[in-house]
Amino acid sequence: MPTIRQRSALLVDEARARELTKASLRWPSLTLTATQLSDLELLLSGGYPALGVPAVAGDAYDGPAQLPRHTVEVGDAYPVTAGSTDLPRIPRPGTTVALRDSEGVMIAALRVTDAAGSTLSGLVEGLRLPDHPDYPELRFTPAALRLELLRRGWITPTGPAATALWADGLLHTADLDRIEALAAAGNSIVVLAAVGGADPADARHHLRVRCLRAALATLSDVRVMLALVPVRAMPRLTEAVAFGPDNTIHAGATTGDQPDAGQATDQATDRATGQTADQTTGHRPADDRETEPALAAEIIHRTQVSLAYGLGSMIVGPAPNAPGASALALLLDHGTRLPPMLTPPAVAAELVRAQPPRGERGFTVMFTGLSGSGKSTLAGLLACRLLERGDRRVTLLDGDVVRLHLSKGLGFSREDRDINVLRIGFVAAAVTAAGGTAVCAPIAPYGTVRRQVRTMVEDSGGGFVLVHVATPLEICEARDRKGLYAKARAGIIPSFTGVSDPYEEPTDAEIVIDTTQTSPQAAVQSILDHLHTHGWLTS
């Protein structure tokens, strides 16, 4: 197979970098997301040729004539900001934009050739590669990895011989068996961990790298190494896909049609294993027609990147019989020992340390309902019952109290109400991540924001229980202890939930309570029973 050489880094020299930095004072700037930054890093390091630009030999920067085309999506969260001149929000063709990281460091200059909607296309000049404080010894540019493989004798100057094994999640016992089989056949293996967009402050990122290292450390007399590459994690695969020296792509069958035993378990625990919550050992998702084109495109992209890194063959996807994330999550939730037939003991130890049983992890209970439904009463009573136990640290985040402190100054427009609920969710997630218990009682009328809060909390590694206090509007209005409904009917309070603004009833609530039919004590006991049943309370 012929060797494909690419530019090691599309970076300008020092003189051009100084020139661009000085000129950038007059340019608009675009702060890239972590994913955008990883895409740019791959481009600048020579990880793949840009659209319409062939692979080139040599490592030197040869000037703007050979700059690649690059596209950037401009989202509202990462707006273009004007420099010293008043430029339009979306720069016009001919404008040069400074592409910056989250700290404002200029990574590259993008000379815009086309602006279609929220997408900027143009020619890019790189000043530097993004900085990574985490695992510098595991990060290689394509040129650096090729040199390392040559030094080890794993590839030769006339053509690549090593195999790329892409790891989008963890490596389990079946995956290690596959590596040993490849090594026995004379292959050298480079495990490429896709970490594009990973946050170095995210504990799950570090857990995944520790698990990968622990897994590979169990192998002896095997030519294998680990490298972190700025490639996005791939959509879920249930088949191993291989690209071989004959330039063909091969797909291998997995373990059959049985779904993972843990599919219905807590999704936050699934995420901690480094894989998606619905990953199974052989069960295809319902939306195959949507995911397969994306998978095919990603496989082609991975093949291109593997070649750029000097690797002549490639395997993507889990090994047959490798456990899905949900199966591991189910065992971890219940404190069940992870058997060596599923995952190596060293990896199991890391997972158990990071994901103790549910009873030792934090969780959030969020009440949602109309004003006057009884949310605050139930939240306060639940907090008391949990504190009486003595084994839980409890933080009560009542909606009215939060507005006096955390959300002081916010009004009652939809935007401000969303911000208020998201602030509550942010604090609840922090409490949960620290192993505490957060009890929240905002009105939270909108489903989209409630789902955002659930995601924040579950991503922190804990549990989330949504309680819909479904007391009817007429009962809430009849209570009207604060006189709010009367003011709303009189038009004094605009956009009041239930009167002049909608309340979107949740369809994903774990518990539904109508306080006209249930006493506060009985309602709180039903919540405690739910927490016991699902393992969040152990006694």
Topology:
Blueprint: H1 14-23, E1 29-31, H2 34-44, E2 69-73, E3 80-81, E4 96-100, E5 106-116, E6 119-126, H3 142-152, E7 163-167, H4 173-184, E8 189-194, H5 203-217, E9 224-229, E10 240-243, E11 249-252, H6 267-272, H7 288-308, E12 313-316, H8 325-333, H9 345-354, E13 363-368, H10 375-389, E14 394-398, H11 399-404, H12 414-433, E15 437-441, H13 447-459, E16 463-469, H14 473-479, H15 484-489, E17 511-513, H16 520-533
Parallel strand pairs: 1-4, 7-8, 7-12, 8-9, 13-15, 13-16, 14-15, 16-17
Antiparallel strand pairs: 1-3, 2-6, 4-5, 5-6, 10-11, 10-12
Helix pairs in contact: 5-9, 10-16, 12-13
Low-confidence stretches at least 5 residues in length (pLDDT < 50)?
A: 1-9, 50-67, 75-88, 244-288
- Cα-atom radius of gyration: 27 Å
The chain-level mean pLDDT equals 80
What is the makeup of the main sheet? 6 strands, mixed
The count of DSSP E runs of length 2 or more, i.e. the number of strands, is 17
> Per the principal axes of the C-alpha atoms, what is the gross shape?
flat
Report strand order across the widest sheet. Answer: 2-6-5-4-1-3
Quaternary structure: single chain
Percentage of residues in strands: 15-25%
> What is the rounded distance between the termini?
63 Å
Q: What share of residues is helical?
A: 25-40%
Structural class: alpha/beta
Please tally the helical runs, counting DSSP H or I stretches of 4 or more residues. 16
